[in-house]
Amino acid sequence: MPFPKAELHLHIEGTLEPELAFALAARNGVVLPFADTDELRRAYLFKDLQSFLDLYYALMAVLRTEDDFAALADAYLARVATQGVRHAEIFFDPQAHTSRGVAFGTVVEGLARALERAEERHGISTRLIMCFLRDESAESAMRTLEAAKPYLDRITGVGLDSAEVGHPPSKFREVYEAAAALGLRRVAHAGEEGPPAYIVEALDLLGVERIDHGLRCMEDPELVERLVRERIPLTLCPLSNVRLRVIDVLEEHPLARMMQAGLMCTVNSDDPAYFGGYIGDTFHAVREALDLGNEQLRELARNSFLASFLEDDEERRAALLAEVEAYDFERDR
Ligand code: HPA
Ligand code: ZN
Fold it and tell me: What is the pLDDT at residue 333?
């Protein structure tokens, strides 16, 4: 069995495989602008974040019913159960659905149905994190938070995603304050395509506990020092960074340098259907490309549980951490 790990940066809509997209399209009478799965896969050549987002949002047209969202999450959970995932904190983009006329409740009820049976079926505990689309207005985000209120028993936190440059964290200060007042945990994408200053804003203005991506912190030594001192977890997504051309090749990914600098790094898959691998595949690729040793892998596995929102189940966190310490990483070669 692969080593135990938590996934902390995963957009459930980014797990929509071409086969499921076409199956749901047929079921819902949606016509996709691609002849078949091969033609769709050939469109997975991205030049930047926006070119990916265009396709990512377009394909969501096939997601219409509670059953569709449950099928999407079921497929993801079944797949990563075989890759050692024991805990998953899953992002979803409510505005990308409500703007198409799909009710907030349809999305959450469908996803939650799959998540609720994941522990029993797959041994995976889960949390749900709703992301605000940063290229939409702060008012729209606030309305989305309002729509979430009947479902807060199933939502652990809020995040911030979509097109980063030109949409700084400061735009969402009031929304994050309101989310905190509701007892929600806070994370945000920052420093993926955007500058290190966005990471500082996310920490100081939004009060986030983790930074999603954050790799551009490496351009600001003072910020690195702060992130190390405050032990702020970074949810890195190396295959995403290559596919979205944030870096040129995996061999140049700063992960190993970031770990050496003392940063609390985790490795995640982001949008695995689009970026060439689920989390286990991602670990195999970075291990090869960056020549990571067993103790570096153990640190990454340990960090994934330490950085997770398992505060209401410290017993489970302790058990999973003990599994990490006991694991023989040679077995996962
Ligand atoms: N960055 C920003 N927004 C996103 C991403 C990403 O990598 N994936 C899905 N939405
Ligand atoms: Zn992401």
Answer: 79
Instruction: Provide the β-strand partners of residue 88.
Output: 7, 126
Question: What is the Å distance from ligand 1's center to 75 Cα?
Answer: 20
Q: Of the residues 66, 164, 192, 299, which is catalytic?
A: 192
With a 6 A CB cut-off, is 270 part of the ligand 1 pocket?
Answer: yes
- Extents of the domains making up the chain: 5-325
Q: Which of 183, 241, 229, 189 shows the shortest CA–CA distance to 210?
A: 189
Which atom of ligand 1 is the closest one to the Cα of 192?
1
Q: Which fold has domain 5-325?
A: TIM Barrel (3.20.20)
pLDDT at 271 (0 to 100): 98
Tokens of 99: 């703007």
CA of 328 relative to ligand 2 center, distance in Å? 30
Specify whether 119 is catalytic: no
- β-strands 85-92, 5-11 pairing: parallel
Question: For the chain, where are the alpha helices, taking DSSP H only?
Answer: 18-28, 37-42, 49-59, 66-81, 94-98, 104-116, 118-122, 138-148, 173-181, 196-204, 221-229, 238-243, 255-260, 272-275, 279-290, 294-306, 314-326
How many angstroms separate the CA atoms of 241 and 49, rounded?
Answer: 9
SS percent in the chain: helix, strand, coil, step 5: 55, 15, 30
Output b/e per residue, 4-28; b: 16+ Cβ within 10 A.
bbbbbbbbbbbbbbbebbbebbeee
pLDDT tens digits, one per residue of 28-65:
999 999 999 999 999 999 999 999 999 999 999 999 99
Note the pLDDT tens digit of each residue in 153-174.
999 999 999 999 999 999 999 9
C-beta of 79 in contact with ligand 1 (< 6 A):
no
pTM of the model: 0.98
* CA–CA gap between residue 119 and residue 123 (Å, rounded): 4
